[in-house]
Design brief:
By secondary structure, the protein is an alpha+beta fold. Helices cover 15% and strands 33% of the residues. A six-stranded antiparallel beta barrel has the order 9-12-11-10-13-14. Strands 3-4-5-2-6 form a five-stranded antiparallel sheet, covered by helices on one side. The longest helix has 11 residues, at 146-156.
Amino acid sequence: MEPYQHTSGWWRRTDRGRLRLTGRDAVPFLQALVSNDVDALPVGGTCDAVYLTPQGRMITDMRILRRGPASNVQRPTSSEELVVSVPAELAGSLAARLDSLVFSEDVQVADISAATSHISVLGESMRDARDLIDEPPPPGVPELSASEIEQLRIEAGLAKWGVDMNEETIPLEAGLLERAISQTKGCYVGQEVIIRVLHRGGGRVARRLMKIACDIGSTVVPSAGTEISKDDIVSGHVTSAVFSAREHRVLALGYVKRDHAEPGTAVRVGDQPATLGEPAS
C-alpha cells in the first residue's frame, strides 16, 4: 500500500445504513433507548451512541444526526427528524425493532438506506470525519479508496462494527466511553451495567481493545484471530490489521486481557514482536 498522501478526502459509506425517526416524540423516544444524550444535540448536531441489551451487550453502534426543528430545540413542540447511521446489515431489523417499541408515542421509524446517499468527509483526522446525507462531495476533494480508509481507521484506533466489536461486546471493552456514552443523562437500556462497571468496578473490564504496533520493518499482516501473547501466555487476539506505509510497519487492533492492557507493553502478534499502544476508541 502506498503511503496516505491526502490531507482531505471523502468516501462512500456503503458499510452504513440509515434510519429516519420523525414525530413530536422522536427525540425522547430515542433518548430513553441509547447511551448518549440525544436531547442535548442542537439542530445539525451529531453524536455517536450505542444501543444495548439490558445485560449491557451491544445491539449496535450508531451516529445520530438531529435535523429539526429549526427553533425551540430544548423543548420541541413540532415534529422532529433524526437520521441514525447504523451498520448496513442491521438497518432493516433495527427499524422493525424500534418500530415495535412505539406504543402511544408520536414516532415514525423508517429504513431509508436505499433512498438516501451517505458519504463521510475527512477532517484533521478520522475522528473529525463529517457525515453528509444526500449531499454531493465537496468540490476538489479526492475520493479515498477502501484501503486508505482502513489504514487511517486502524492508525486512529477506531473500532468498527462487525470487525472489532459485535453483539458480544461490552462498549467499555471497545473504548467507547468518551465518544458514545453520556455519564450525565437519564436512564437508558443497559445503563445499570455500565454504571456498575464504572463506579463499582473502577471501569475495569476483562479485556480492552488496544492499538498494537509491530516492530519497524514488519510486513506480514496478521489475520483476524491471530493470537496476542505476553511471555508465552496468550493474552488476546487481533481483530483488524494493516500495513502502514507511513509508519513502515504493521499496525493492528486487538483485545488484550486487562492485566496486560498497558501502553508500552511488549507482546507478540503471532510470531512478530510488537508493542501495545493506547486503548482504541
